[in-house]
Design brief:
By secondary structure, the chain is of the alpha/beta class. Helix content is 33%, strand content 16%.
Length: 205
Amino acid sequence: MSLYQLQKTALVLIDPFNDFLSEGGKLYTITKETVEGNGVVGNIKKLLDAAREKKIQVIYAPHRHTQKRDYLNWKFMAPSHLGSKSVTLFEKDSWGAEFHTDLAMQEGDLMAQNHWTASGFANTDLDFLLRQHNIDQIVLAGMRANTCIDSTARFGVELGYHVTLIKDGIGAFNWEEIKATVETNFPNYGHVLSSTEDFITHINM
């Protein structure tokens, strides 16, 4: 018997931007080792194909397309956004803020409002979209392991969702960040830690 009720499951893809995942992206020199090492793009593509085939809802939860000075006067700047004062990541109307071509949206996919910091839930309509589509179980993949992935997963658990993390569908700035998320953080609050292959096997049962 499958772990998942397919009509009540959503694949939530977080920040699949060129800046993270493509050669020439502003962060790719930093993320390349884990993105390529984990086979992130290829694995997410497999997840998307399998989810769409099984009529599992796909929801994109992207970071805000930033503009210069967006974070200039924030009262309390998150450490992960300090670089935004000098380098504009996921810049509005830029190639870097587009989704990787292999991970583009398709008809039937949904897009949550853009998050400003890490959590895909905070100050967005992601929870609303999930509840409107009667979703109880969310499956997370994308970027970056110890910030947006971890924050969204924790928030999802707090809101009452069953949360699965695809351990080879995430990247980070280094392997230590992956290890912290996969081996220490998520197992202490999340429900299922899965590989891409195992998740696809489960939904095909």
